[in-house]
Amino acid sequence: MRATGDFVTIKDGEIFFLGRKDSQIKRHGKRLNIELVQQIAEGLQQVESCAVTWYNQEKLILFMVTKNDLVKDHIFEELQKHLPSHAIPDELVLINTLPFTSHGKIDVSELNKIYLNYRDLKSECKLSGKEELWEKLHHLWKSVLSLSEDALKIPDESLFLNSGGDSLKSIRLLNEIENLVGTSVPGLLEIILSSSILRIYNHILQTVFSDKDLTLSKNHAMKRKFNVTQEETSGKSLRQETVMPLNCDKEINAFIALSRGNQILSLNTDKYLTKLGHCPSTYSSDLNSQTDIQNRESLNTPPLIGKSEDPSCVVEVSEEETPVIRAEKMEFRVRWRSDTGKCVDASPLVVIPAIDKSSATVYIGSHSHRMIAVDLYSGKVKWEQILGDRIESSACVSKCGNFIVVGCYNGLVYVLKSNSGEKYWMFSTEDAVKSSATMDPTTGLLYIGSHDQHAYALDIYKKKCVWKLKCGGTVFSSPCLSLIPSHLYFATLGGLLLAINPATGDRLWKHSCGKPLFSSPRCCLQYVFIGCVDGNLLCFTHFGEQVWQFSTNEPIFSSPCTSASEQEIFFGSHDCFIYCCSMKGHLQWKFETTSRVYSTPFVFRNHNHNSEMLLAAASTDGKLWILESKSGQLQSVYELPGEVFSSPVVWESMLIIGCRNNYVYCLDVLGDKGNEVQSLEYT
């Protein structure tokens, strides 16, 4: 017997062939045997024979020999009836005969050549006119959104996100359109995410074709509508007749604020942090990592690879490549959950007053337009404020601690009183604000981006915009502030990473990454990191020089986070892995989850084993993973009853996260024998 890579079953002494081991792939976060696609396709009446390939590990291609050349669209519709969405082929290619090797097997390399020629030929074919472009755009729209070709005509004002699209599908539509027209279309992704199908069509015509007469009337081109009342833009509260202005200098509170990516903002809390085992910052307020700054033990171990098949154990790969099994038990218990009415994609902000930690508050928004403040320990809703549209932006606290700042789909940046939710000021941009604000602890300025392609610096105390900068692309992600050197980093869906002077708004340098940047930049003392949809994590110096890149197999939407020692960097990928790399870009370990990892990981300390650092991460199928941060070993897994795009935040023994089942959850993390695992020690 020898290892052939075939899956078989044995019945009554006979071996029955089931399929090939190399036919197992992971697509859209789920496992798929491509032979299943082939079997379903072969069962269709119009198909004589077929074969399926996983082209460049990025496209599922179905090659068909059919009995009728005119049944391609019908076959696609039939496949959608019999296959799950993650198994629908990207392309159907009609061929005359299937190629075989000398051993009688399907010649996959020859099929790949056929597809390459097919793709090149398709890109070389010139469109006959605007009518054909319009028809093919409709076809691609339906294909990417898995809509039947017999579906009703797509209205001109249809928006991609409102029609069932998401970030990943928008990338696919972009690639399909660029394949269709045979060239890149700058700025198209931003249009797909924010504008109508007619606006997408006009943008393609204006960008790719020189004949201006082809362009349809722009009067019908529709962008996202903003229903902003005069009362809102005036900056007056909708609930109170008067708003007393707060004096930041006189009413500064001492507090700690935690947000995704184990970022901690501390103000006037040096003594408090010292009690927690932290070293005070040079600044009275600063952005620190939550883990022990003095823990700077380097990692020189070989890469470790863990899998999620058994929640109680994980396989390590040692230097001799001998599997080492280690089991750890850690449990989750729901402390409370709060219903927001609709999906919660935003990440929580946790604010802990230094003088009374028992009054700690969780601030988070949802698609229901609601912004809520919830008591961290009891789950009691302290206040609720209805904003003008959907909220995906995560909240940010002001320097004085008296205000919460959050962006909204209606293009407004809301400044709310932290103790009551009253609307103190509203600043209007020209498009949706999904970016989360970043606060400068030295000046109190707040920085935020908008889909209107601008970055803004806001002085909320003077209620004015200090500066505004055109970024050359939609700003989806959140800015990152470096205090030394004094740089502010923004990323765009046009693929630009920008370094900006936070005081003046002047651009210091820019780097084109070539593909859209949904990930937020993260910086440490030496470097700036960002994930790209081409699957690469990129590392730059603060002067814009690229140091290294680390490649995964799928797009990176997850924002990176660093350990406090700045020895490791953690991030997730759509290839379903959580990664840990050294600051030199070397893989330390990777852990395979059960779905795509969109959110940002969070590093915290195991209180039961003081020297052990843990990592919390979430996959989009709703699973929460607790890993040992040095090795990637699985400590525990818990499944929420809905998809998760929110990022976890951990304080003491509590993990807070949003879920697409409309709830925000607070979970107690219980260690060995039911002991609580704590992120920070306190007295």
TrEMBL record:
It comes from the Eukaryota. Residues 131-208 form the Carrier domain. Coiled coil: none annotated. PANTHER family: BETA-ALANINE-ACTIVATING ENZYME (PTHR44394:SF1). This is Beta-alanine-activating enzyme isoform X8. The gene is AASDH.
